[in-house]
Amino acid sequence: MGRGKIVIQRIDDSTSRQVTFSKRRKGLIKKAKELAILCDAEVGLIIFSSTGKLYDFASSSMKSVIDRYNKSKIEQQQLLNPESEVKFWQREAAVLRQELHALQENHRQIMGEQLNGLSVNELNNLENQLEISLRGVRMKKEQMLTHEIQELSQKRNLIHQENVELSRKVQRIHQENVELYKKAYTATTNGFTHRELAVADDESHTQIRLQLSQPEHSDYDTPPRGSE
């Protein structure tokens, strides 16, 4: 069977009330921690027991949470009043102008301009900033060069593999050409040999026929000699 619905009202028994407070307080703090971690929220939790004991939890620090809360409440109250809203935005604009002026002055000093009036400590701080910035630039440059070297090395390996494959193909084609040349040479040699044998055989038969042939008689008789 399921649990019955709990009536939300004050618990009269002090022991049960204290046990319930301890359990619910731990569960509430646990949920606040989970909310801060899961949702990247700034959470502040303040609990006073019936005896006046304080329990609190803050994801960052309780002071920063309270200061942020008070600032937000004041801003909300000011936004509800049109005159206060105008003053609020005027103050914001003045703060932004000051920040912009400070950034422009810092930029000029980093570029080596308007250094008059700076103390030795301020110059040392400026030098440290420049060294930190320079190290950052060099690290970024080194990372980019290392990445480019790795890419070029990979491309070189690919090109080497392609060259090896092409060399193998050229060798196979060369071997095939050699085999074809050998076959063609063998066929040509065999053809010449057969023809030479046939010519030699014909010459031998001709010589035999010439040896067996009889001399032909002349159509003219030799005239008899006259008596002396």
Key features of this structure:
228 residues, mainly alpha, two-stranded antiparallel ribbon, 2 strands, 73% helix, elongated
Write the layout of secondary structure elements.
Elements: H1 14-39, E1 44-48, E2 54-58, H2 62-80, H3 82-110, H4 120-212
Antiparallel strand pairs: 1-2
Please explain how this structure is put together.
By secondary structure, the protein is mainly alpha-helical. The chain contains four helices and two strands; from the N terminus they run αββααα. Strands 1-2 form a two-stranded antiparallel sheet. A hairpin with a 5-residue loop joins strand 1 (44-48) and strand 2 (54-58). The longest helix is centred in the C-terminal third of the chain and has 93 residues, at 120-212. The N and C termini lie far apart (177 Å). The mean pLDDT is 81.
The number of helical segments is 4
Oligomer: single chain
| Sheet with the most strands, sense and barrel status | 2 strands, antiparallel
Mean pLDDT over the full residue set: 81
Shape: elongated
Provide the β-strand percentage band: under 5%
Structural class: mainly alpha
Low-confidence stretches: none
**SSE run:** HEEHHH
In whole angstroms, how far apart are the ends? 177 Å
Q: Share of helix among residues?
A: over 70%
> What radius of gyration results from the CA coordinates?
56 Å
Question: What is the number of beta strands?
Answer: 2
Give the strand line-up of the largest sheet: 1-2
